[in-house]
């Protein structure tokens, strides 16, 4: 399984290449769009990684399967 740091570095690399091309072409609007998209995607990726870590922790600490883990996760998400 890939590490959290490696995944986030790959995400940054993809955006950095596109951002640098937009900067070289003086596309200010595109650079702004890429900044916003990067922040959104980084946040979503961090949430997904947190879920992965939670499911991995539960898997090692309980005998429940994936369905039970997802059920437990849905209860956590629905808490007020």
Low-pLDDT stretches: none
Q: What share of the residues lie within helices? A: over 70%
Percent strand: under 5%
Counting DSSP H or I runs of 4 or more residues, the number of helices is: 3
Chain oligomer state: single chain
What is the structural class? mainly alpha
- Total number of domains: 1
The radius of gyration over CA amounts to: 18 Å
Q: Give the overall shape, derived from the CA principal axes.
A: elongated
- Summed over residues and divided by their number, the pLDDT gives a mean of 87
What is the terminal-to-terminal distance?
32 Å
> Could you describe the largest sheet, including whether it forms a barrel?
none
- In N-to-C order, the SSE pattern is HHH
**Strand tally:** 0
Quickly list its features.
single chain, 80 residues, mainly alpha, elongated
What does this structure look like?
There is one protein chain. With 80 residues, this protein is mostly helical. It has one domain. 85% of the residues lie in helices and 0% in strands. It contains 3 helices and no strands. Helix 1 runs antiparallel to helix 2. The longest helix has 34 residues. The two termini are 32 Å apart. The mean pLDDT is 87.
